[in-house]
Amino acid sequence: MTGLRILAAVILPALALLAPGVAEAHLIATGMGPVYDGVTHFALSPEDILPVVALALFAGLKGPVHARAAAVALAAAWFAGGALALGGAMLPPLALAAASAAALMALGGLLASNLAVRPLWCAVVGAGLGLARGLADMSGVAGGLAPLGMLLGVCASVAAAFVLAASLTLPLRRFWMVVAARVAGSWIAALGLLLAGWILRYGAVVK
Amino acid sequence: MTRKAAVLLAVPLLLALLPGEASAHIVKGEAIGFVSGFEHPISGLDHVIAMVAVGLWGAQLGRPAIWLLPVTFPLVMAFGGFLGLVGVPLPGSEIAIALSGLLLGGAVLLEARPPLQAAAALVGLFGLFHGYAHGSELPPGQNALLYSLGFVLATGLLHATGIGVGLVHRWDWGRYVLRGVGAAVLSGGAYFLWAALG
């Protein structure tokens, strides 16, 4: 075999294989079925966890009536948003990214300011957040029973995370504990503000 | 091309094709985003001394400054980061950052007690410049959310460190220690100001 033949037979295909391509990997598959895929999806999505925790801490600080209203509205709206997305409803990626940044700023700001609101407003905020995040989570996913199971897993995780986080602040009456929750709110609002800058500079950098 | 040269080229290329760890799943790069975001605020001593000084001064001033100043700083700093990211010009940021160490250190050294609004405005102003410097340096290609999360957490923890150290203020000997730390911050700020002007 001459050098040129080796080049043609080995090196060129090797170089072709080395050319970078897009890694079309799966979203998240745990191997334990769609419901657990949904649970894992939520657990690995900070863009889902952070606003849920912010709203839960805020509603928890306000009291059990507020927390219950927000929890029910959030989980139900998340399911509705996800179902809409599975039915074909879509938002542009930039709108979803902007909604993520806006949610972090608004919920972090609410928590930091510890604003006095009625339970209905907690429910309205929870419904808005749930609808937007449900749409974002399920956008681009083909409909069917498996994605519906995944959506159920996500919604169950949302409800569980909300209840756990709200239960942290419900009994908080000591000054420094309330301050700690409010400081966390300011950090979350700061995070949303930075994210807005990223989006304006680089486009839809978050779903 | 000789056979030997072709083999010398082919073997390394084929070795490069050997399968390695496939890390192409969706969470690729997220740890890098968080870690590099966390490292950013603590990578420059001029930033570190100013952020710790905010906590020190807050602890020295007591309630409500002890929590109001560390809440003000990250929020205004994030706004500065926002301005830096979108490219709004803000001249003199290096000098302002050095001045922040100088003045905040001086405030701790002298146990300055201005009105709360004035203290918050001063801290906020410096936060704006610190954030701007960070925002204009943010590297592209990071995971935006996790990078920002690491960035904000590191900033907040630096304040918390300052508050933790500043709690020695409750003891007589602690007040002197705290003022000594303020003097060290002031010296650092003076050094960075000298460097920024030079």
Verbal overview:
The complex is a heterodimer of chains A (207) and B (198). Chain A is mainly α. Chain A has one domain (31-202). Chain A has helices at 3-18, 34-43, 46-62, 64-86, 93-113, 119-138, 145-169, 175-202. The termini of chain A are far apart. Mean pLDDT of chain A is 82; it is low at 20-26. Chain B has eight helices and no strands. In chain B, 78% of the residues lie in helices and 0% in strands. Chain B has one domain. In chain B, helix 3 runs parallel beside helix 5 (93-110), helix 3 (45-61) packs antiparallel against helix 8 (172-197) and helix 5 (93-110) runs antiparallel to helix 8 (172-197). Chain B is elongated and about 80 Å long. At the A-B interface, helix 1, helix 3 and helix 8 of A face helix 1, helix 4 and helix 7 of B.
Q: What are the secondary-structure elements of chain A, in order, as H or E?
A: HHHHHHHH
The string of secondary-structure elements of chain B, in order, is HHHHHHHH
The counted number of beta strands of chain A is 0
Instruction: Enumerate the spans of chain A where pLDDT stays under 50 for 5 or more consecutive residues.
Output: 20-26
Average pLDDT number of chain A: 82
Into which percent range does the helicity of residues of chain B fall?
A: over 70%
Distance between the termini of chain A: 53 Å
* Class by SSE composition of chain A: mainly alpha
Count of discrete domains of chain A? 1
Q: Give the tally of β-strands of chain B.
A: 0
The most extensive interface between chains reads: A-B, 43 and 45 residues
Low-confidence stretches of chain B: 22-29
How far is it from the N-terminal to the C-terminal residue of chain B, by CA? 57 Å
Instruction: Give the rounded overall mean pLDDT of chain B.
Output: 80
Share in β-strands of chain B: under 5%
Topology readout:
The complex is a heterodimer of chains A (207) and B (198).
Chain A: H1 3-18, H2 34-43, H3 46-62, H4 64-86, H5 93-113, H6 119-138, H7 145-169, H8 175-202
Chain B: H1 3-16, H2 30-42, H3 45-61, H4 65-86, H5 93-110, H6 116-137, H7 144-166, H8 172-197
Helix pairs in contact in B: 2-7, 3-4, 3-5, 3-7, 3-8, 4-6, 4-7, 5-6, 5-8
